[in-house]
Automatic annotation (TrEMBL):
Name by which UniProt lists this protein: Aldo/keto reductase
Pfam family for this entry, one: Aldo_ket_red
Superkingdom assignment: Bacteria
GO cellular component, one term: cytosol
Entry's Gene Ontology molecular function annotations: oxidoreductase activity
Residues covered by the NADP-dependent oxidoreductase domain: 47-227
Transmembrane intervals: none
Keyword list, A-Z: Oxidoreductase
Length: 385
């Protein structure tokens, strides 16, 4: 029986807790700086496992399961995935690795499991006519309207609910720690920003309802461009505005605007894609200008970085300044990860691994003290000069 045919006998209850994640962090021989604080309590590894890369086949399924298992028992307690990754196969492969980790004594409450939704999960491969598939499987079945579509992205409450259900059942858990709306900015060129905000308002209500119902614990937005571009760019999205939408959604669901569960953002960040730290395009709750990472910290949002190794490019060729600044690290991959995990305001950097052997680079960095704030900022001064 293949990984995709296996299903857990039951859904495992629980979410990441302060007590369990603290015990997990102390159980591994890693540098204390390897763990970041989510909302000041929950310990999350500064390097997490991304599960987007790889072809949709049994060999890759097994590799992901092995990586997840080894990572979880070695001190990496953050897993990021999405309903559509590898046509849904990543979810089942992760589940196989999770079950092995649980068998080895890792507690569900020690792990942060995060999924995303928006892009349609095609079955096994991209159909010859994606538009016809979406018409038959999404629109005709009432999961979304034509105006909710932007290519293969469907932003509607029912589609997001379906992808939450797909994610948690395939992973074998009752509750996801977080569920992110993936790249909502793709709707802006199609229908405009005002229409996107209206769609997000409805989706956020569905996400608050999912929290109320125990399907997710937190939610947020993952974006490739919206948090990196300049304020006057059409694709820009304001963190403060998204939080205001979340407050309105919470008031609709619970009656309390302050008790919303919008808590996580994700964006690309690495030694080449620096905008999240270097571009001042956001405002904080106090009205000051700030970078996305600074604003997120001020707004009590946890920031996750995708593209930590720039799809492997930074593992093969490092930025010269990093080579000069980190001569004690053995290779380019380790220097790139050390740069990210030392970035102020950045909680977790995701790395997609193709083989369990590559975990040694990750764990070697996890055993290394973070760069000091002065040493980190000196990298930018060197670049400017």
């Amino acid at each position: 029986m293949g990984l995709l045919d296996r299903r857990a006998a039951r859904l495992i209850p629980g979410i990441a807790t302060a007590e369990a994640t603290r015990a997990y962090s102390l159980a591994h021989d890693l540098d204390p700086g390897h763990y970041s604080d989510f909302q000041g309590r929950v310990k999350l590894s500064a390097i997490g496992l991304g599960t987007f890369p790889g072809v949709a086949d049994d060999v890759t399924d097994q590799a992901i399961a092995d990586i997840v298992h080894k990572g979880l028992v070695s001190g990496l307690n953050v897993i990021d995935t999405a309903a559509h990754y590898r046509y849904g196969r990543s979810l089942a492969a992760i589940a196989a690795g999770l079950r092995r980790a649980w068998d080895d004594g890792v507690k569900r409450e020690a792990l942060w499991l995060m999924s995303k939704g928006g892009f349609v999960t095609f079955p096994g491969e991209t159909p010859a006519d994606p538009k016809a598939y979406i018409e038959a499987e999404i629109i005709a079945k009432g999961l979304g309207r034509r105006e909710d579509c932007a290519g293969a992205h469907v932003l509607s409450p029912d589609h997001i609910r379906a992808q939450i259900e797909q994610s948690r059942v395939a992973l074998g858990v009752e509750t996801l720690d977080a569920f992110l709306v993936d790249q909502p900015e793709v709707h802006i060129p199609v229908s405009g920003k005002a229409a996107l905000i209206d769609k997000l308002a409805m989706v956020f209500v569905a996400l608050e309802e999912a929290v109320r119902d125990g399907a997710i614990a937190h939610y947020g937005v993952s974006s490739f461009q919206a948090f990196r571009v300049a304020t006057d760019d059409t694709l820009f999205l304001s963190l403060a505005s998204l939080m205001a939408l979340a407050g309105k959604a919470a008031k609709t669901v619970t009656g309390s605007e302050r008790d919303h569960h919008f808590a996580v953002i994700e964006l690309p960040f690495n030694a080449v894609m620096l905008e999240g730290f270097s571009r001042f395009n956001q405002i904080t709750g106090e009205g000051g200008e700030a970078s996305t990472l600074q604003a997120a910290l001020a707004l009590n949002l946890y920031t996750v970085a995708s593209h930590g190794l720039l799809k492997g490019h930074l593992a093969r060729q490092s930025v010269d300044i990093l080579v000069q600044a980190m001569p004690g690290l053995a290779n380019d991959a380790r220097r790139a990860l050390q740069f990210n995990r030392s970035t102020p305001g950045l909680g977790t950097t995701l790395v997609g691994l193709s083989t369990p052997a590559h975990l040694e680079d990750v764990l070697a960095v996890a055993r290394t003290p973070l760069l000091s704030h002065a040493a980190y900022m000196a990298l930018y001064h060197r670049a400017e000069n």
